[in-house]
């Protein structure tokens, strides 16, 4: 392959895995570009021969400059979830920069089923970016990544320590996916010669309720978990009383509400379609990380 493949946010958790996956697939390091706000964070990849370029999504000119010469660009969604539209501006600006720089194909990491009326507080960030990608006229691949298994590190250690899991998700299911599976799928698309514009939804192998996840976590760690089902209002009140930062409460309650309403229960075979192998199960993740989760 002679095309230049570029990965944004390359110093992040997903970005680094994508760089590794590209190298593992046999893509020459000289054909890979990684962008980040601080080039020193990718010094280890620069040592491998990967071109490292600085790009600040708050500075469109720097993004266009970084994208120049790249054929296929993976725009990994940014972490600017501030409720002020920052991420929308960053990402739609990156799409415009890609077109101006002469990029041929965009790969964008989105969320499952972004739609108006979703309980997910950052849904519009993805929906509007997807619309910008489609309107750009460039070939594209949109990868709608399900909730990462690794995100369970945000609350499961505390749940295991207290023995209680408060939730308003009801019997809604989530098909958690390993971040590595998303990285492998992204690398497969980026390193391919695909020219068609398509949307894929990347999920784990099954959807599970909070009660089922709690049971698997208990089985893995030997620690009991009592799941307490609440209303959204009760869950928000408990978070406020516990001192959870105000900006996080609607984000976390919205995730549970979206789950309860069936917004996270889709299960697809797209990971296997793109990578040739089945995604890691949540049970396997819990077993592999039981020591970290249990503390």
Concise summary:
This protein has 295 residues and is of the alpha/beta class. The chain has helices at residues 13-24, 43-46, 60-67, 86-100, 123-135, 156-162, 179-190, 210-221, 232-241, 248-260, 270-275, 282-288, 290-294, and strands spanning 5-7, 32-36, 51-54, 72-75, 105-110, 139-145, 164-167, 198-202, 226-229.
Explain what you see:
There is one protein chain. The strands form two sheets. A seven-stranded parallel sheet has the order 3-2-1-4-5-6-8, sandwiched between helices. 42% of the residues lie in helices and 14% in strands. Helix 4 links the parallel strand 4 and strand 5. The protein starts with a strand and ends with a helix. The protein is of the alpha/beta class. It has 13 helices and nine strands. The mean pLDDT is 95. The radius of gyration is 20 Å and the shape is globular.
- For the secondary structure, the number of strands is 9
Number of helices: 13
Return residue spans where pLDDT drops below 50 for at least 5 consecutive residues.
none
Helix content: 40-55%
Name the beta content range: 5-15%
Largest sheet: 7 strands, parallel
Structural class: alpha/beta
